[in-house]
Design a protein that fits this description.
11 strands, alpha/beta, TIM Barrel, 339 residues
Length: 339
């Protein structure tokens, strides 16, 4: 027996035929009234690259094509259009049977593209091409923006040697599933969002929140509980004082390895002086024979901050990036726009 899970509030429905701006059906109506519906070619391209860069990384093609395949008007949607505009009934009859019959040429996802170079080319009768325009733009624009941002962050993290970047953007993402998928196309190694990992079969990773550490009377109790729960685990060091926490973490890790066979895989810093603290932590880990334990850094990072950290000699092995990746943000400090 299948269980149906329903939300207690009304979730917005997906209506492909209404995924347009108001002026698209209005313009289609003028086209219909005047008999202008010849074969038309639209190119999707950008005049500038985002983030002050020189390129874009293409993403969103799968969602764009799924939108085109699903594009149609239901009787309820046509009734809605009739209520908000005085369209001729014969025009609405045409919309009822409208399906895309044209041709779409596009660069594969993950391709590098430059300003003024077409990402996608649509050739179709005017009204068909016009009515799918906004949905295609929305699918490609956000995904390409996020994939480009991810690629820049991953490139910055790989100064000197490979370092993994995990996408931690769910709570700040413009559209979480799109962000997770596009970030993976852009080079991120994993996502923290389980829904995205499930839908797209992406690697899922995560550490622990400060709230879990604070749940216990002492940091040592928290670390012991975590190390006992998993055969490979990560400890968060900056809830209180990371330079004290690393000594507690080392003691717990050595005991857990000896008694349970459980391995400390990584430690995370989410705040503070990431350069000085990461180097201190690396030194303590190496002295304890824990050379294989990775140091993960997170906390309002982007490509510029990661570059600065590594250039300053931070001993960081991987990064978790959330807000700037999930929102496709530029940098106020660098005077760089995200668009």
């Amino acid at each position: 027996m299948n269980e149906v899970i329903a939300m207690h509030r009304r979730a917005p429905g997906f209506h492909p035929g209404l995924m347009t701006d108001m002026y698209h059906p209005d313009s289609a109506y003028v086209s219909w009234r005047t008999g202008h519906n010849g074969l038309t070619t639209f190119d999707l391209y950008t005049r500038t690259a985002p983030f002050g860069g020189a390129y874009l990384l293409v993403a969103g093609l799968e969602a764009a094509l799924e939108f085109v395949q699903a594009f149609r008007y239901t009787p309820e949607e046509l009734k809605f259009l009739a209520n908000i505009r005085d369209y001729d009934a014969a025009f609405l009859d045409e919309l009822a049977n409208l399906r895309f019959t044209g041709e779409i040429l596009a660069l594969p996802e993950g391709s590098i593209v430059f300003p003024n170079e077409p990402i996608m080319r649509i050739t179709a009768p005017f009204r068909e091409a016009l009515l799918i325009e906004a949905g295609l733009l929305q699918a490609i624009n956000l995904s390409t923006l996020i994939a480009t941002k991810a690629s820049r962050i991953v490139y910055a993290a790989e100064q000197g040697r490979p370092r993994r970047v995990a996408e931690f953007a769910f709570r700040r993402a413009q559209e979480p599933l799109t962000v997770a998928r596009a970030s993976y196309i852009g080079g991120c190694a994993s996502t923290s969002l389980l829904n995205a990992a499930y839908e797209f079969r992406l690697p899922a990773t995560g550490t622990v929140p400060h709230a879990l550490i604070e749940l216990f009377s002492t940091e040592e109790e928290a670390f012991e509980a975590i190390s006992a729960a998993y055969n490979r685990y990560t400890l968060l060091l900056d809830t209180y004082d990371p330079r004290n926490a690393i000594h507690t973490a080392i003691a717990v890790a050595l005991r857990s390895q000896e008694t349970l066979g459980h391995t400390l895989a990584a430690v995370r810093l989410d705040s503070g002086d990431l350069v000085a603290d990461s180097n201190y932590i690396r030194e303590q880990l190496d002295r304890a024979g824990l050379e294989n334990v990775r140091i993960l850094a997170s906390g309002d990072l982007d490509e510029w901050k990661i570059s600065e950290l590594l250039q300053a000699g931070a001993a960081i092995d991987s990064f978790g990036v959330g807000t700037t990746l999930g929102s496709g943000a530029g940098s106020i400090e660098q005077g760089v726009s995200g668009t």
